[in-house]
Specification:
With about 130 residues, the chain is mainly beta. About 0% of the residues lie in helices and about 40% in strands. The chain has no helices and eight strands. The termini are far apart.
């Protein structure tokens, strides 16, 4: 007998990029992005900015509501002076439907802080 009779098929989770939303957030300290998801999706949040011109120390976001330091769905710190992003992906699993992604950029003290004028982007990578 050269075939195993008790083997189960292996399932692999394969994501495909449904869309990528890129917004210029230069000189902005908060905003919102409308999401219209046809299927349940993984939404990965990436902040990009020129660290030599200053950057917000904290980035918070919430789905369907304006975030605060006491009420948020995700919190990240953009890259530091080494321009290396931490290992952890900032990904939210969202159900299908229409919702709004609200975000704020803050200082360590919790005050609003603007992104630098040049080269600041907010990227939402939507995978299904």
């Amino acid at each position: 007998m050269d075939k195993s009779m008790n083997s189960l098929p292996t399932r692999t989770y394969v994501r495909s990029r449904a869309s990528t939303i890129v917004r210029d957030v230069g000189e902005a300290s908060n905003g919102s992005i409308l999401l219209d998801l046809a299927k349940p999706s993984d939404v990965t949040v990436i902040t990009v900015c020129n660290v030599s011109t200053g950057l917000p120390e904290v980035f918070i976001a919430a789905i369907g509501r304006v975030p605060s330091l006491s009420d948020f769905d995700l919190i990240v710190s953009p890259t530091d002076f080494t321009v290396i992003k931490g290992e952890g992906n900032v990904t939210l699993r969202l159900p299908a439907g229409q919702t709004t992604f609200y975000w704020k950029a803050l200082s360590l003290e919790g005050d609003t802080q603007q992104f630098p004028t040049m080269g600041s982007r907010l990227v939402l990578a939507i995978d299904q």
